[in-house]
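Researcher: Quick one. two chains, 747 residues in total.
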Amino acid sequence: MLFELLDLLRQGGAQTYAALARQLDISEALLEGMLADLERMGYLRQVGGGCAGHCHGCTMAGTCAIGAGGRIWALTEKGARAAS
Amino acid sequence: MDEQRVITVALAGQPNVGKSSVFNTLTGLNQHVGNWPGKTVEQRTGTFAYNGVTYRLVDLPGTYSLTANSLEEVIAREYIIRERPDVVAVILSAPVLERNLYLVAELLGLEAPLVVGLNMVDVAEQEGMRIEPRVLEAAMGIPVVPMTATKGLGIQELVRAVDEVAHGRTPQQPQRPEIRRDHQEVLDQLLALIGARAPEGYPAQWVALKLLEGDGEISALMSQRIPAEEWAAVSRILLEHEDAVIAVAGGRYEWVARMVRAAVVRPRAGQITLTSQLDRIATHPFWGLLVLAGILGVVFWLTYTVGAPLQEWLQVTVVGGLGQLITSALAGGPRWLTALLVDGVLGGAGTVITFLPILAIFFATLGLLEDVGYMARAAYVMDRFMHLMGMHGKSFLPLFLGFGCNVSSVVGARVIESPRARLLTVLISPLVPCTGRMAVVTFLAPLFFGRGALAVTWGLVAINLVALAVLGVVLSKTLLRGEQVAFIMEMPLYHLPNPRTIAIQVWQRVGEFLHKAGTMILLVSVLIWLLGAVPTGEIQTSLLAAIGRGLEPVGRLMGLDWRMMLALLSSFAAKENSLATLGVLFGAGDSAGSLGSVLQAAIGARAAWAFLVVQMLFVPCVATVAAMRQETRSWGWTLAGVVLLLVLSLLGGTAAYQIAGLL
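Model:
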């Protein structure tokens, strides 16, 4: 099941929890557990959570279009290797 | 029969599943609290009687799994392996059954007799989830007892099931998780090497799986028990199959998913949450784009109907009035001082400040969209759009942080692991329309295009996004061949906006904007005025005019005179400087009329259109360039990015002007 998840990520692009859960035919709750496990094993890392504080010199400093609570994950190098 | 015998039951479960209430209900006052031998973790034991038999109940620490991640997990599994309780009763929380079943999958590997107490079935039912205990029981091959421990329901049934298993009256036929088929061979190899060397009580298969999972405790244990030469062979296999941990854990998830599919009836269609219903449209590849375009349309419409009239009023009444006031107050003073204050400071920085209402509307709508949870969807939809444009297998999620400010997306690119994908994102992120550019557009578009301003603004945003996608495709085909970039996004739940949060955001951003207007923009305004005053005091013969005229040959292709070219050039310091420069050069500080009417008289719609196209595609502001340098750590790539956008914007402007001439 985890290999299947990595396989879906190998296709690249941004994917939502809902889309991944649908393709794996599991619930989002189980998917979340799998993501947390893959992070613990070093295959994924959490990258979401905003960019506040980096945007000096701009009127919109502190704005983060994708910061509103949703977590974002990316493959680590190890994850990318395993996925391919 | 064995009335004198004490039956030991270990109580297992993840934290917060109601294990304590089962323990307390059964043991009452017959409890003993101590520590696990040699550990500082609390151990609770107790006794109860059933059918004349004494039961000793041992409360295992709450654990999510049985890996060696934490002391609690090690204690729980070592107890089961070494003490071999007669029965392990595992308590699951029905509403979060999926997460809880993983522990059962692990426990099955230990080959201990199991009974499952399915707690909080009432809560699960309230949430519209129906679990079939009998089906779950058949699928797992172990007894399942539905319970509501807080009300004492099902506890007696749990004890009866435990009693049956302890006396061997319920045969256990557990369906254990299996490792992925392609890893079966390596598991067999390990099993052959381990042979009968697993310590007593440790199932060989479990030991082999834990070795494949890279479990430090088990590795240390087995390296002591296996001769060095054979251990070297084991280590070699483990090294070669580093990713076997995914196959092992994946096998357990596969098992969990199978159990859930068999025994859980999902909420009916009517009960699907509002968030997922809304997301069917908001994250749809086609409808999602329409929703985004619609939302942008509403934002522009609000800006034009509410913000633009306010801006004009501020310009004519406040800036114009102040100009008159200063002129009359300084009537006897030096002429240059009046000119500096009226033409330089008021005409430049003053003009920019009149944009406050427009920006406040931007900030408020962006804040609102962010607060209700829409912005994550917007970023996702834009990412899908890039796919539609031909960038398969790549993701540029951080790009869409740039809707607020390009610096955000350049810095946000850090989250991309691959250096080349990161570089590409940095290079193209200035093409995301930022608020600074949009301020310039919202000023000029209604001036020249009246009712058509909305369509023009839309068109400008679309041109930028298409340019972004085309450039992205070209660069990714050359820079990123074969590389994939993936992100997984959790969509936050939609919720009602909190006016206070939004108000605070707007307040902070307005403060930042005013700060910028009072420093950077003021400085550039005065500089522009100064260059326009030396050496003769006449702008037409000034140093500035000389510089501007040097740019005119390029400007002619786009129908832009030297003043417009200088406005573009000054936008390098900050995008809003375009307006400040236009204000200084077209005399916005003078009381003759609004900057709008002066501009309308001075330039035509065709040149204004070309100006807007260039402005949208132009070299990013200095803050963004600095961020590009910081993130790429290369002046070469930074320069390449700047030149790329310079060429693109000039080509775009020329094309816009020439095509508009044909219509």
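Chain B touches chain A through 85 residues (CB under 8 Å).
Researcher: Thanks, that's what I needed.
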